Amino acid sequence: MHFNLSFLAALATLSTLSTAARPNHKAVARRQQPTGSNVARSGGFSGTASFFDQDGGTGACGTAHSDYDKIVAIASGLYDAESHCGKSVTITNTANGKSVTAVVADRCPGCESRDTYALDLSLGTFDAIGEQATGILDITWEYTT
Tens digits of per-residue pLDDT, 22-76? Predict the structure, then answer.
């Protein structure tokens, strides 16, 4: 096959543009397997948390945030057509007891591959309750508004 250079350059540009506007929802570090049970608890949920960077993009809720804003992306199955956007959730790391409150600002299409109640946290939210080197955290979380 023979492609001219201008066609390949245009293809590369389109590929870059199609991914640049969306946050990076792959777990940046996954060194530890989750042990979350997915069992709903009294007033909340049990699951796992990963972290993501914004890459300057706009989340599914329609707003752009910095990497250190306290925001969270919820699993696609829980997202429900933006009905959770703007709601606050309190997330607790079950290993160390640290908690943080963050606002739902996005959905996480890859979270359900870990568990039903998995969350993807901004770097600022994740850093408030755990170390990035840990990778996946076991958490409990609940809606607070």
Answer: 444 444 433 333 344 444 445 699 999 999 988 778 899 999 999 999 999 999 8
| Closest residue by Cα to residue 36 from 144, 136, 143 | 136
Q: Is 16 left (phi over 0), alpha (psi -120 to 50) or beta?
A: alpha
| 105-134 tens-digit pLDDT | 999 988 888 888 999 999 999 999 999 999
Strand locations in 21-126, DSSP E?
A: 45-52, 71-75, 88-93, 99-108, 119-122
Question: In 49-61, which positions are buried (b, 16+ CB within 10 angstroms) versus exposed (e)?
Answer: bbbbebeeeebbb
Provide the pLDDT for residue 43.
Answer: 62
Residue 22 identity (one-letter amino acid): R
pTM: 0.72
* Average pLDDT score over the chain: 77
Could you give the dihedral angle defined by the CA atoms of residues 4, 7, 11 and 12, in that order, rounded to the nearest 10 degrees?
60
Six token digits for residue 136 = 């996946």
- Name every residue whose Cβ is closer than 8 Å to that of residue 127 and which is 6 or more positions away in sequence: 68
